[in-house]
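Support case: nicotinamide-adenine-dinucleotide complex. Customer-provided input:
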Amino acid sequence: MDSGSRKVAIVTGGASGIGRATALLLAGEGTRLVVADVGEAGGEETANLIRARGGEAVFVRTDVTKDSDCAALVATALERFGRLDIAFNNAGVIGYAAFTADYGVENWQRVIDVNLTGVFNCMTHEIRAMKAAGGAIVNTASIMGKLGAPGGSAYCAAKHGVIGLTRAAALEYGRDGIRINAVCPGYVETAMTVGDGSIFPKRKLQAGIDRAAIRRMASPDEVAAAVAWLVSEKSAFVTGEALTVDGGVSAG
Ligand SMILES: NC(=O)c1ccc[n+]([C@@H]2O[C@H](COP(=O)([O-])OP(=O)(O)OC[C@H]3O[C@@H](n4cnc5c(N)ncnc54)[C@H](O)[C@@H]3O)[C@@H](O)[C@H]2O)c1
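Agent response - structure generated as follows:
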């Protein structure tokens, strides 16, 4: 296959965790990657890992809370590779845990800005780029997009919002050949949950593992595999779906 006919994907939050695992998996399938993140060292490292394995990748420093950054990200994908087929809008932050009355407006705003408005910002530019030839978008929600979690009001609100946004846009653009889905991971071993300096409450992690039918956390690769399926032809009739990948946490 000549290089120009290989698919092109944007992955936000690609410097680490689920984003990096997905970027590496897609690149291993022959997709050309545009890795986006606020974290420059990690983002460059992901792009380098892809190139070291024989793939094509570029890193674009992107703060998804800034619409102009998201516009530049999509423009770079088009300039560099000439097309955009896939987008995984995955950048996210957990926020400080506190009950709602004590949550704080700044904490609230940050979590909503990155996790919800960031997805909206990326999608607007991605959809415009995909309208002529179609494409597949996956947005990272969470099981907290389907369930409540004490201490996580903004995170739950943002992730519920991501699912609503996904469904609305899926209905709008199905006729343009753009499928739009969400992935809802449970507890995944990444910097967010188990990394140095993670602010994720540790007792909640253990409680999450205890609630899972498969009594462990997911690896980032296990979420990446679901995303890779959602952006592939194998899921050609799936759109507007919020696919849970949680080892059974929310089954009970
Ligand atoms: N780890 C879990 O248990 C879990 C569970 C459900 C959902 N999620 C979601 O999965 C996604 C990926 O998280 P992860 O677990 O891989 O964590 P992670 O911390 O390893 O990755 C998140 C990435 O997002 C980037 N990021 C943060 N703010 C950004 C911004 N403004 N612009 C661009 N990039 C930004 C970070 O730099 C980081 O590289 C997030 O949306 C998270 O909410 C994670």
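The chain has one domain: 3-244.

Case will auto-close in a few days if no follow-up is received.
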